[in-house]
Amino acid sequence: MGVAGCRWVSGVIAVAFGLGAGVLRDPAGVLRTALLMMSGDPRVRRLVSTAPLTRGVVERFVAGEDVAAAVRVAGGLRDAGLRVSLDLLGEDVTDRRLAEESAAAYGGLLRALADVGLTPAAEVSVKLSALGARVDAALARDLALRVCQAARDAGTCVTVDMEDHTTTDATLAVVADLRREFGETGAVVQACLRRTEADCRDLAAAGGRVRLCKGAYAEPASVAYTRRAEVSASYARCLAVVMAGRGYPMVATHDPVLIELAAGLAGALATGRLPVSAQAAGGWSAGQAPTAPQVEAPQVEVPSAGMSQAGTSQAEASSVATPPVELAVDGRFDRRAVEVPRGAASQGAVSQGAAGQGAASQGVARRPFEYQMLYGVRPGEQRRLAEAGETVRVYVPCGREWYGYLMRRLAERPANLLFFARALRSTS
Hints:
alpha/beta; TIM Barrel; two-stranded antiparallel ribbon; 10 strands
């Protein structure tokens, strides 16, 4: 494998075993924690960043190092029937100059996208720490406003990425401020955090674009679910909340069970039918559908969302109510319990091996939403869903500061570690 490869893989193993007995109980979970811890270690960053890696290792998950490469990749995805959210890598800037440069880079990217006609199919995702949030919160807000204006001028919009749990309150507060002038601004919430179901209720009542993801940061058990099954169960509950709300859900997952659950909920909401496997939660029982809070909120124009697959407007579909769906018993997520309603209510629901049977191709009324997946992760499934008539957006990072992003991708699926190690070996 070579010196660099051996040192890096040995470091991962050492950190994992340093975490204690959990290695035997949940080896994948401990490996994930080790990788996330190493994502912030400057010594490991130097080792990996200076290793003679083949370009293919990084290019699997990152679309090049400059705007031209990002625009080229975005164009290819658009031509394949996919939508795009571009992220300029480079979070945690430490001075005002770098923050200003980051905002200017987003402005240049947005102009480049507009110049070649990629908006509104392409939007941008922005981390507030890239705009100086750790230096000056007011600076980050002002620069975020500047990026939002540039996005609107280009004919698209911004989604504000969520970072670790210490930033959640501040990030949601900035999103609320941005939406006063730029109502199309998207929020992001992470199902791994224990607080997120409550955050989803607030966002669902307010309306607007909401991306629900599992989360990719190392978080303490005091604020986060640490087992994969618990995170999946939390995701299912949060998904039902945002689907029942007044906004536009962006379902960011690669999990086939959750992909199918989203399609089933969207179909059930359009007809008033619910998954029969939904367990009692919040005082309601299976088969009952209490009315969701009818909160007056401004209707947000969602660039590139438009009409639902069946021609139902967002405003019409978002008025449909559903209760939160509980798919967990004592925190355990039972994949076998996920039963998506079939028949007229959701005959277009997505199922594995059912390519071409999406709601769009069947003309089935559904609550509008979109799937979101990461660049380089399950690209075949991205294309399959798009060909089935689903709206699919690919999250595309670009830039030279790829190390932290790459480590989080390895942590999400430790099997990717073998791919990375093989590349190290092939270049030594």
